[in-house]
């Protein structure tokens, strides 16, 4: 049990073989040395470290706990982050993709459930229309069903032939650039406001998680914290000036989300480029240390982002590893299901050298970004958290009298 303890409950541990040395870190002296062939199984085990719950629940749980502490430290301080961040204005924003065609939805207009993921409220009809029109392909653009949360129809187009699958995967591919410009413009807006009020410059620090909707489009959950800037210590986390409030941050992010857009490079299938914008549905709420009214508390926000960071494309009904020319036919079909069409169009668009990234990320429906990102000055890093855990385990092993292999 001691031998496999390093891999914990990992479902697919990495097996390592070679020479092991126990080293005195103060002097560099090699205390003992041996080969893994003398150990049980002839190898040592290392946890895979995968962040996705569907791949390895144990490693994903560790990643989720690390993400929680990383995000929360940026809100309340601790772990080398000053406690003064508690007083900084902060907001939680959800930004979604635009519509690429009508899809089946579960429309709950006034949800009274505390756990939105297990909502039991009665939804409105999916797409109820008196005239019951049809699309050019003869498919009725109406649906009177009140879909359950587990309904497999959710996120599927009413007419798959009308749905703009190409724009969808291209939007996923460029969502990261759209977010970069959105934050940049929100920060510029706040600095213009600061100049008008005679205040020093400010900046926004963020923590961001990406999540797939059932239709296969990513949307971002973003925590934004307002910081001041100390010219003498530009990397320090300092309080912002008193003249800018949480309401100003909400107004700046709302303005940026509704006005910012970018265009992609031209593609042989779309010489005029695609236009990348946010959808009309977005939510921006203040964060406080004790939630009240419309505000969220720091623990809820940290838990939200940590939970989303361990998800992948499971919500769309598709899961796979990176696709190759040998495996693409197993998952792509231009006339198949909604995920199969998205993968097929990503693979097709990616045949152009300048768009080869779409083939690399076809299994992720075009999205190639990280699922949890943060600004450099927002909080600590995953690496520092892992170093602390390694140091703790090393000390625990030494105190228990066991040999420690490095």
Structure description:
The protein is built from 8 helices and 13 strands. With about 400 residues, it is of the alpha+beta class. It folds into 2 domains: about 260 residues, no CATH class; about 60 residues, no CATH class. A hairpin with a 5-residue loop joins strand 6 and strand 7. The chain starts with 13 loop residues before the first strand and ends in a 7-residue tail after the last helix. The mean pLDDT is about 90.
Give short descriptive properties of this protein.
406 residues, alpha+beta, two-stranded antiparallel ribbon, 8 helices, 17% strand
Short description:
The protein has about 400 residues and is an alpha+beta fold.
State the assembly state of the protein chains. Answer: single chain
* Largest beta-sheet details: 7 strands, mixed
Arithmetic mean pLDDT? 90
Radius of gyration, CA atoms, in whole angstroms: 25 Å
Share of β-strand residues:
15-25%
Described by the principal axes of the CA atoms, the overall outline is: globular
Number of domains: 2
The strand count comes to: 13
Q: Give the ordered list of helices and strands.
A: EEEEHEHEEEHEEEEHHHHEH
Helix content: 25-40%
Terminal CA distance: 18 Å
Report the total helices.
Answer: 8
Counting helices, strands and paired strands, the structural category is: alpha+beta
Uncertain regions spanning at least 5 consecutive residues? none
């Amino acid at each position: 049990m001691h031998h496999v303890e390093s891999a914990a409950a990992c479902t697919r541990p990495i097996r390592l073989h070679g020479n092991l040395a126990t080293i005195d870190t103060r002097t560099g002296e090699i205390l003992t040395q041996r080969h893994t062939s003398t150990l049980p199984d002839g190898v040592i085990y290392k946890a895979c470290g995968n962040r996705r719950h569907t791949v390895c629940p144990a490693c994903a749980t560790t990643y989720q706990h690390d993400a929680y502490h990383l995000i929360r430290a940026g809100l309340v301080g601790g772990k080398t982050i000053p406690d003064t961040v508690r007083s900084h204005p902060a907001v939680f924003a959800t930004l979604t993709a635009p519509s690429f065609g009508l899809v089946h939805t579960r429309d709950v207009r006034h949800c009274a459930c505390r756990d939105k993921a297990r909502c039991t409220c009665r939804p409105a009809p999916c797409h109820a229309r008196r005239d019951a029109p049809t699309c050019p392909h003869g498919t009725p653009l109406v649906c009177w069903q009140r879909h359950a949360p587990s309904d497999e129809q959710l996120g599927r187009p009413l007419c798959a032939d009308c749905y703009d699958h190409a724009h969808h995967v291209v939007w996923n591919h460029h969502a990261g650039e759209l977010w970069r410009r959105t934050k940049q413009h929100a920060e510029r807006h706040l600095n213009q406001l600061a100049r008008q009020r005679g205040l020093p410059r400010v900046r926004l620090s963020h923590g961001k998680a990406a999540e797939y909707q059932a239709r296969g489009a990513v949307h971002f959950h973003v925590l934004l914290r307002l910081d001041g800037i100390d010219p003498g210590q530009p990397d320090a986390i300092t309080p912002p000036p008193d003249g800018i409030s949480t309401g100003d941050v909400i107004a700046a992010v709302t303005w940026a989300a509704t006005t910012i857009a970018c265009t992609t490079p031209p593609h042989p299938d779309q010489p005029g480029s695609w236009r990348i914008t946010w959808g009309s549905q977005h939510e921006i709420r203040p964060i406080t240390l004790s939630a009240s009214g419309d505000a969220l508390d720091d623990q809820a926000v940290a838990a939200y982002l940590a939970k989303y960071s361990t998800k992948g494309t499971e919500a769309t009904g598709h899961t796979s590893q990176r696709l190759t020319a040998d495996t693409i036919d197993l998952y792509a079909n231009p006339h198949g299901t909604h995920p199969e069409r998205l993968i097929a169009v990503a693979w097709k668009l990616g045949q152009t050298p300048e768009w080869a990234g779409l083939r690399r990320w076809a299994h992720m429906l075009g999205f190639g970004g990280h699922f949890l990102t943060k600004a450099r000055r927002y909080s600590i890093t995953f690496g520092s958290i892992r170093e602390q855990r390694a140091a703790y385990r090393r000390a625990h092993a030494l105190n228990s009298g066991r040999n420690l292999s490095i």
